[in-house]
Write a structure and sequence with these properties.
Layout: E1 2-3, E2 12-15, E3 18-28, E4 36-43, E5 49-54, E6 59-62, E7 65-76, E8 79-84, E9 90-94, E10 110-116, E11 120-125, E12 129-137, E13 150-155, E14 160-164, E15 172-176, E16 182-186
Antiparallel strand pairs: 1-6, 2-3, 2-6, 3-4, 4-5, 7-8, 7-10, 8-9, 10-11, 12-13, 12-15, 13-14, 15-16
Length: 187
């Protein structure tokens, strides 16, 4: 157990029986009232926010979290099979932990997975950007590079994004996994 004053942004705690991450932490001392901490948490399972006030002496269960890099091998139902590159140990990771970034990753990409007590994965994050090949898009016309007009393109994993007019079928593009936006063409 740790006191609230020991917390900092990014820590993982167990609050009301749920695993939460500290989003924001403010120490306030209003007028002639006692000081308190205003803490904003995010539930790592469903992403919901919770906010509460604590006295500086209140105790909270601070979790020991370890992050490791795993390589995504393949999808198996509602799980992703990932392998530790050092020990070659394989784990099953719930697809919900990746959120929307799941649409933009492919086999072989490295994921950063956080574990509670060394065994239970609580969060997973994809790399900030990935390189994917365009499997289909309408052909671009000569001289259509002057404007910032976008057209739909289907990627190798079946996801559809908007790309500039000069991108053709077979080109490789870098995609932002957080927003799903086109970043650049890759040679």
């Amino acid at each position: 157990m740790a006191t609230i004053s020991d917390l900092s942004r990014g820590n993982f705690v167990r609050y009301n029986g749920e695993v939460m991450q500290v989003e924001d932490l403010q120490h306030r001392t209003p007028g002639n009232l006692r000081a308190f901490y205003q803490v904003k948490f995010r539930n790592v399972r469903n992403g919901k926010l919770a906010e509460n006030r604590f006295r500086p002496s209140d105790e909270i269960d601070l979790l020991r979290v370890e992050t490791r890099e795993y390589q995504y091998l393949y999808a198996d139902g509602d799980s992703l099979v990932c392998m530790d590159n050092n020990t070659f140990e394989q784990i099953y990771l719930d697809k919900a932990l990746l959120g929307d970034a799941l649409k933009y990753i492919k086999e072989g990409v490295t994921l950063l997975i956080a574990f509670e007590n060394g065994t239970d994965p609580i969060t997973a994050s994809a790399p900030p950007s990935v390189v994917l090949e365009v499997s289909y898009t309408e052909p671009g016309l000569q001289g259509d590079t002057a404007t910032r007009t976008l057209k739909p393109a289907t990627l190798e994993n079946g996801t559809e994004i908007r790309v500039p007019l000069f991108i053709n079928t077979g080109d490789s593009v870098r995609v932002d996994t957080r927003t799903g936006e086109y970043i650049e063409r890759v040679k």
